[in-house]
Specification:
By secondary structure, the protein is α+β, with helices and mostly antiparallel strands. Helix content is about 45%, strand content about 15%. Helix 1 packs across helix 5 (about 90-105), helix 2 runs antiparallel to helix 4 (about 80-90) and helix 2 (about 20-25) packs across helix 5. The longest helix has 20 residues, at about 135-155.
Length: about 170
C-alpha cells in the first residue's frame, strides 16, 4: 500500500516536471489592454479592440449604454520569463523547483473590471474602474536622457561619403 502511494506521488511529480508547465504558461497569457486608446470621446470599436467584447451591456436613458469589460492585468506573454524558467529547468534545482515555478505562473496577474458609459453616438462618456498607475518621474527622465544621448550620437557620428546628412530635429 505504501509503495503504491509513493509511486503515485512520484508519478504525478514526474508528470508535472516533464511537462514544463511554467515555461508554457510564461510564454502564453493575455495581452494587456493599452489604456492610451481608452479615453473619453474614443469610439466604441477602438475600446473593444483593446478590451474585447463586453461581459454585460445595459441600456440607459437617453440612448446611453453601459458596458462592463473584464480582463487580466499582469499576465502578458513574456518570452524572457519563459527563457528564465527554461534555463532553470535545465539545472537539477530547476527540475525540482518546477512545481514552485508553475505555482508562481498560476498566480501571475489579477482580474480587473472596467465599466464604460457610451453615448447614443457610440463614443465614451464615462470610464469607471481600473486605471493604470501614472508613469513614474524616473522613467520619464530616463527616456529623455536616452533621447538626448541618441541625438548626440547621431550628430557626432561621421557620415559615409556620398550619404546625405540626416535632417536636424528642431
Amino acid at each position: 500500500m505504501a509503495l503504491r502511494i509513493v509511486t503515485t506521488v512520484f508519478g504525478l511529480y514526474a508528470t508535472l516536471v516533464l511537462s514544463g508547465c511554467s515555461i508554457i504558461m510564461a510564454a502564453s497569457g493575455q495581452k494587456e489592454p493599452n489604456f492610451n486608446y481608452i479615453t473619453v470621446g474614443a469610439p466604441r470599436n477602438q475600446v473593444e479592440a483593446e478590451f474585447g467584447h463586453p461581459t454585460t451591456s445595459i441600456a440607459l436613458a437617453d440612448g446611453k449604454q453601459e458596458a462592463t469589460y473584464k480582463y487580466e492585468m499582469g499576465n502578458s506573454p513574456n518570452p524572457a520569463r519563459a527563457t528564465m524558467w527554461g534555463y532553470a529547468w535545465l539545472t537539477i534545482i530547476g527540475i525540482l523547483g518546477e512545481p514552485i515555478y508553475s505555482l508562481i505562473e498560476l498566480n501571475m496577474g489579477d482580474d480587473q473590471e472596467t465599466r464604460i458609459v457610451y453615448g447614443s453616438d457610440g463614443k465614451v462618456l464615462e470610464i469607471h474602474g481600473y486605471t493604470p498607475p501614472p508613469i513614474s518621474k524616473v522613467v520619464i527622465e530616463s527616456d529623455e536622457a536616452q533621447e538626448k544621448y541618441i541625438e548626440r550620437r547621431r550628430k557626432s557620428a561621421p557620415m559615409p561619403e556620398g550619404q546625405p546628412s540626416p535632417p536636424s530635429a528642431q
